[in-house]
Amino acid sequence: MEHLVIHGGRELHGTIPISGSKNAALPILFAALLFDSSVTFHNVPRLKDIRTTCKLLEILGCETHLEGDVLQVVPGALAHEAPYDLVKTMRASALCLGPLLARLGRARVALPGGCAIGARPVDMHLAALEKMGATFELDSGYIDGRVDGGLKGAHIQFPFPTVGGTENLLMAAALAEGETILENAAREPEVTDLANFLNACGARITGQGTSVLRIQGVARLVPTPYAIMSDRIEAGTYMAAVAATRGDVLLTNCPLDAMDAQMDVLQQMGVQFTREAGGIRVRVDARLRAVDVMTLPYPGFPTDMQAQVMAAMCLAEGSGVIEETIFENRFMHVQELMRMGARIKLSGRTAVVRGVERLNGAPVMASDLRASASLVVAGLAASGVTTVQRIYHLDRGYEELDIKLTNVGAKVYRSMD
């Protein structure tokens, strides 16, 4: 099995371009199911999850053509079943549920898989779609949904701001009859990117970026070319890597307007940011300071950056408390960081990180996408060699990570067992 070998202890210097956002691209690609003609997407990251999405779209009746960062999706005669073999590998596959119900009135979708970071039930998706007239049965591991006479607008209040639920409902409501109001909706920039794309195609959505979204259903959407936003989590991961190695790197194509919370935390830790033509320079010239961090829905500190900041904080002066409020099982990277010499004490959803002078390279194993990234950050800063196993997680969410890091001075390469 392929693994990543990192010879640590090298400062990072140079320029890293930020790719298109995985978390924005996936729902926007599934929105292609809403159209009856082809649509072209730009700034699409070349990732395993994108390839999986293309395979699923093809099974559902679309043609896909990917060249560089440009993807064309051509809908045909749509099928209504998303099979387990693909859905099990990617949680976002559940996002075909809303578009299929809107277009076909029928959807049969395997219960989703993805990273093992805790319960992420689709119950809120189903309860909201039921208010719009859909009915569901669970059958042999599949969600079997139907709607007679088309979806109808409804007033929906989520018990928690679910990103996937908000995205599924945005797509379903775009073609529903009447008005749909989503209260306690997710405010993440990726949700806003989806709403902006749908509006560019003729949808009538207001309230993007707030917790209340209003969608006036339309009879038909007309596809238009669209550029996916850049990846704020990829950018934050490289910021954490620069912090851990005390480097100096220019990040280009960086979505700064969506990164206030993570940049605030890194700045408190001692990271210096300077806006320059074409991007933002990230520099650290002294030992980091430990700070307290709590993950929260946007605009709070993102749970997808918790592990990477923890890896950098392992080398900080003092002690910091990291509280994970989104997922109950998102500290699986802690034991691996401790194998490298980190001092971390866990208590439920809280981790107390006491900084050490040095981490030591070690063989470590990734448990999920962002945990993988945290081990890379730690390995870049550690003395000696770190081997990260199960890097298929990394390939789900980071485009050419080893190449980008090599280009700024890291010694990183892939190897087979």
Automatic annotation (TrEMBL):
Pfam families: EPSP_synthase. The keyword Cytoplasm applies. Keywords: Cell cycle, Cell division, Cell shape, Cell wall biogenesis/degradation, Cytoplasm, Peptidoglycan synthesis, Pyruvate, Transferase. It is found in: Cytoplasm. Residues 7-401 form the Enolpyruvate transferase domain. Its EC number is 2.5.1.7. InterPro entries: Enolpyruvate_Tfrase_dom, Enolpyruvate_Tfrase_sf, MurA_subfamily, RNA3'P_cycl/enolpyr_Trfase_a/b, UDP_GlcNAc_COvinyl_MurA. It catalyses: phosphoenolpyruvate + UDP-N-acetyl-alpha-D-glucosamine = UDP-N-acetyl-3-O-(1-carboxyvinyl)-alpha-D-glucosamine + phosphate. One of its GO terms (biological process) is UDP-N-acetylgalactosamine biosynthetic process. The modification 2-(S-cysteinyl)pyruvic acid O-phosphothioketal is found at residue 115. Pathway: Cell wall biogenesis; peptidoglycan biosynthesis. GO terms for cellular component: cytoplasm. UDP-N-acetyl-alpha-D-glucosamine binds at residues 91, 304, 326. Cell wall formation. Adds enolpyruvyl to UDP-N-acetylglucosamine. Belongs to the EPSP synthase family. MurA subfamily. This is UDP-N-acetylglucosamine 1-carboxyvinyltransferase. The lineage of its organism: Bacteria, Pseudomonadati, Thermodesulfobacteriota, Desulfovibrionia, Desulfovibrionales.
